[in-house]
Amino acid sequence: MPELPEVETTRRGIEPHLQGRRISRVVVRHPMLRWPIPADLPQLLSGQRIEQIERRGKYLLLPFREAGRAQGTLLLHLGMSGSLRIVAAGSAAAKHDHLDIEVDSGQALRLHDPRRFGAALWQPGAAGEHELLADLGPEPLTEAFDGRYLWERARGRSAPVKTFLMDSHIVVGVGNIYANEALFSAGIRPDRAAGRIALARYERLVDEIKRVLARSIKQGGTTLRDFVGGDGKPGYFQQQLLVYGRGGEPCRQCGAVLIDVRIGQRSTVYCPHCQR
After folding, report:
1. Residue 16: which pLDDT band, with cuts at 50, 70 and 90?
2. Looking at 3, 6, 8, 208, which residue is catalytic?
3. Shared domain check, 254 and 168
4. Are 110 and 177 members of one domain?
5. CATH code of 257's domain
């Protein structure tokens, strides 16, 4: 499933092709995604000018505020295996190409989603008012996300710290891969109770989350299965993963055998020597 770095990589890849462009046509081929694509989306978007492409957690946002036109935001989500590509407008569509947003340059933003777990939704007014975004935690790469914030939110919680980190109401975008990697780099066992971790350790953990995410974004995300960025180029961060997907292999820091367990029904790999 594309996580925050993959979504941010996609945003950066498609933005230069779309920013400042006016939408000329919207083609909906298969409206039944995770939620139905609104039937009036072509009418709502046609003629709109794309000023910018934003990201909130794993959602891409296209806000429209031009006077005299529908005010609102298009929310796009890649689901489990979706991707966005820039293609020539009117080019032949593959089986799982569900949505094209054509612009006046002769290009189109194409949503490809084999499993149909993605989404294309319209939110009138401010995007933050949509029920999918209203209760999200802070972005992990902002100053609002720091060690004290995480420590205060963890007080009294008995849930494993990895589960705590992956709760989007606490912080957005720290998915399974990056939670594994950041906890390893911070030396914290993923099954430790969130409420039993000291402030100093949370401060280090936040630093590692920011470092791991920033590094992954710089290298184009993590390619797992079928994710490809918006520019058609895969990410390369997977080559640097220290624990995720390496259960049973030796730890690259100490040589101990990495342990693979299930936490919150997700594969979780950690080093019993380096993480406490």
Report:
1. very high
2. 3
3. yes
4. no
5. 1.10.8.50
Residues 258, 259, 260: CA angle, nearest 5 degrees: 120
Average pLDDT for residues 79-98, to the nearest whole number?
Answer: 93
Residues 125 and 151 occupy one common structural domain: no
Q: Are 265 and 212 members of one domain? A: yes
The verdict on whether 58 is a catalytic residue reads: yes
The whole-number pLDDT of residue 59 equals 96
Average pLDDT, the chain: 91
pLDDT in tens, 171-184: 999 999 999 999 99
**Structural Rg of the chain based on CA atoms:** 20
CB 269 within 8 A of CB 180: yes
What pLDDT digit, counting tens, does each position of 237-256 carry? Answer: 555 789 988 899 999 999 99
Q: What is the pLDDT of residue 226?
A: 44
Per-residue pLDDT at 108 exceeds 50: yes
CATH number at residue 54: 3.20.190.10
31 within domain boundaries: yes
User: Which of 21, 56, 58, 201 is the catalytic position?
Assistant: 58
129 catalytic? Reply is no
Q: Which domain holds residue 260?
A: 147-270
Is 266 a residue of the active site?
A: yes
What residues contact residue 89 under an 8 Å CB cut-off, 6+ apart? 24, 25, 100, 102, 103, 106, 107, 108
Examine the domain organization and report whether 178 and 105 are in the same domain: no
**Nearest by Cα to 215 from 182, 189, 187, 190:** 182
